[in-house]
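Class, carefully examine what follows:
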Amino acid sequence: MKKLMIATAALCAAVSVNALESANTVGYTIDKAANNTWKASATPFESTTGASIDLQTLFSGFSTDVYFDDDQVDFKTIAPCVQVQNRDAQGRITGVLTKYYYVADAGWDAGYTDIRPGWVNASGDALGGENAAAVLLAPGTGFWFKDAQQACDLTFAGQVVDENSAQVTTVADLWNAICNPFPEDVALNSAKVVWGSMTQADFDNDQVDFKTVAPCVQIQERDASGNITGVLKKYYYVQDAGWDAGYTDIRPGWANASGDALGGENAAAVTVKAGEGFWFRDPSSNATVTFSK
């Protein structure tokens, strides 16, 4: 297998999986993060060994000049930061998020003589070093990212998942941070995504507000320049979405709060960009989401 490509922020265009030369080719994708704003980020690759990818090598393009050992300021207030959902012994996500930080003086060994850049815990211990376990992210895992000092062009690099499809399993009644495991944009109602084992909910339900029982996603809005904002928009999966202006084409799909199908005649398609995470919650089912190349 080829070595992991160390991509830099100087690269200026996202490469879709279709542009890569083979299924296990290394590649990269780029997304923007606004200054001092939490961004839903993603894991659109796996490692070159075909396993979960290490946070230490997943992406670049953020500030690298913050020091843990800084007497003038608490490093946690200015260092690039991620929030990752914890998992239980069975590998299922929990409702707890843990923060990690990027510093120039991470402690990699027990004696703190190996001092170099890296992602660390709140004690300054390098993740994957002698004092703290590595944080490994499976393809399809979302997480939060913020750089308190600057806007960033984030470059995600790794190996494209070998298979033609990849499945993400979610936990019922929890907000699951997920993403497309492949480095390409995908619309919520695209044929490339199969939303399986989900709760059946109807928009036209006189007994209950559909928004309380339907599967739901939260996606960050973007401004006219394509930059994410601090606003999260909710969409719902219903069995009776309205696809045409006259509401004669009624079938399942993701819809807005008015029951209009995204990408139909009444509502624009909603696309999740490569390298972008989003929140998913099914109130009562452990849903499975299958993404295809």
